[in-house]
Amino acid sequence: MSTSTAQQFPSGPPSSAEASSSPPSEAPKGHPKGLYVLFATEMWERFSYYGMRALLVLYLLNYLQFQPADSSSVFKWYTSLVYLTPLLGGFIADRFLGLRSAIIIGAVLMAIGHFLMAFEPLPIFYTALVFLIAGNGFFKPNISTLVGKLYKQGDPRRDGAFTIFYMGINIGAFLAPLICGWLRRNMGPTPGMGYHWGFGAAGVGMVLSLIIFLIGQKQVLRDVAAAGNLNEIVPQKKDSTALQASAEEPDEQVPSTGGFGGAITKVFPWLLFLLAVVVPASFFYQAATGQESWTNVIMPTVFALIGAWMGWTLLSIKNAARDKSTVIFVIFTFVVLFWMAFEQAGNALNIWAAYNTAPLDLGLFSIEGEDYQAANAFFIIAFAPLLAMMWTGLARRGMEIPTAAKMLAAMFLITASFGAMVAGAAAENGTVTRVPLAALPEGIQLETLNAGRFGYEPSSQELTVRGVLAPFAVTNALRPTVDKAYMAQIEAMEVAVKNASPERPVTFQFTGLPPGYTFPLSDKQGVSGWNAESRAVTMVGGLSPVSKAQLVGSGAPPAWRQAITSLAEQSKAAQVSGLWLLLSFLLATLGELCLSPVGLSMVTKLAPTRFASLFMGVWLMSNAVAQYVGGSLGEKWGQIVPTSYFAIFVYSSLVGAVVLLILQAPLKRLMHNVR
């Protein structure tokens, strides 16, 4: 998974005990038992994260009846903060809490967050997300560090340990969408609406993770102590004398590169300063003129300020060391473009899988909906060892592929991945569904609905739609035709029956109903009685978002409502094969394997010693930037046709690939023979 490859590289300087340890050849066979405690802890934590992520956008769309713009907004805030808070969580663990306490606090916070997801009110839902974000900040950066502390510096078992740990992550990420998705489809009072069962399973996974760590923590501490690293997992204050001594590094005595590469090094910090002014100013202007909400100013400003900080840091580095450091930040730009596309998996591609993709029959079982979220982890487990063997084999033959070239391959692979989605979306968009409709309702503008995929042919009196008409598009098409007075009554009813229960039923009387009205709710939705003559309904439960949407839809003109609902059902024939999605995930995963591990390794090789941790944290922040930008683009889903939406990522990735291709030679010179 995109979040997991960071775990392959241990962090932290060697302790004095490590420096005086036995030669690597004397290392014992097998792995310490503590590794398997951490393996299981992380596996179940990743199960909880990817199980919840697989359901999140669909829960917002189907259960809470959000439109894609709103669901994507929630998704971008959640996922970008999940990747940003580990910077703070790692700092707090380093200075104040220590690794063990931080991991326990993080696991407890996330367990609380997952179980809060079982409650429907929106304030509780948002509170749950806050707990999950904060918990992840404490948990994620520290458990992988703890894996490295199980081994002495130079222990040959360490690489194998991170491979085992990495597989645990992907096992959890593979199982989570399958199990949580199955529960969503098959449990609960209404078919397909068992979201809280899925969220509950994710919560159980997090509790198991916590229990395993609490039970096994003594074994982990014994193994850390045996490796001589116990002092490194407790809070440490930086020695200012040591920091001063390391201020000047050997690379800063080596002359910098000239030519085009040298120009990049000189210009790049000032480009970061320029962006730090232009980006916030642009968002402030848009917010002040009503084009953007003020909340959308926050994250771009934070990212811009961090960019200015990094520009100032680059200016403090000299000569060849600045050349190498600049490479990290230049590559950062392309990594953001990669993750921006790749992380559509949990958002737009998840929506596409749920509505626009037909179940893929594989004989003994079928793949549908959230199941596709497991594809990335499956392909990593299948192909990661093969690619690792290939890189190693090429290096042994003196044919090692430079890091920038591997990044270039990743950019072309993600371009091809979304090229496959464009092809699949074109096939879906090529199917046209027709239903009879005598005339359009007054005031309806088809070009503003369903990304302009509706059409009306007056000569044949037919309403048409290209591709699949998703449920959220049905709601969006019915709502404009509903009388405002009726809408006001629904709002009043929602307030009136908020606390209704079987013990305390509430009766609400409509003052007027649209012509041809049919009451849509049943006893399964909290209705104990409906009297058409008196227009009174008795409720023994509150009005859920789904029930409210049905009430709204029932107020639309009968002919329009019938045409839209028939169109939605018949348009399912436009669903395309899931093979398009699987091909897209395969290409994206191969790209991930070319980019993520080698990118992390590159930072460890190029960053100055005194900025190693800082640059690694900022490098990992590329996913936070990508999640936010990609989520912002996701707000356009349903407003532009899917072919055009997926094409955004083809163009952005392709442009990135071409620019990176042009930069191959200067980047190679700036790296000063580091491969």
Please sum up the structure shown.
With 675 residues, the chain is mainly alpha-helical. The protein has 23 helices and 8 strands.
Provide the descriptors you would attach to this structure in a database record:
single chain, 675 residues, mainly alpha, three-stranded antiparallel beta sheet, 23 helices, 64% helix, 5% strand, disordered N terminus
Note down, in words, how this protein is organized.
With 675 residues, the chain is mainly α. The protein contains 23 helices and eight strands. A three-stranded antiparallel sheet has the order 3-5-4, covered by helices on one side. It has a three-stranded antiparallel sheet with strand order 6-8-7, with no helix packed on it. The chain has a two-stranded antiparallel ribbon with strand order 1-2. Helix 4 runs antiparallel to helix 7. The longest helix is centred in the N-terminal third of the chain and has 32 residues. The two termini are 24 Å apart. The N terminus is likely disordered.
Distance between the termini: 24 Å
Please state roughly what percent of the residues sit in beta strands, choosing from under 5%, 5-15%, 15-25%, 25-35%, 35-45% or over 45%.
under 5%
Biggest sheet statistics: 3 strands, antiparallel
Q: Which blocks of ≥5 consecutive residues have pLDDT under 50?
A: 3-25, 240-246
| Strand segment tally | 8
What share of the residues lie within helices? 55-70%
Individual helix count: 23
Q: What is the 3D form?
A: globular
The assigned structural class equals mainly alpha
Which strand order do you get reading across the main beta sheet? Answer: 3-5-4
* Overall pLDDT metric: 87
Using only CA atoms, what is the Rg?
Answer: 27 Å
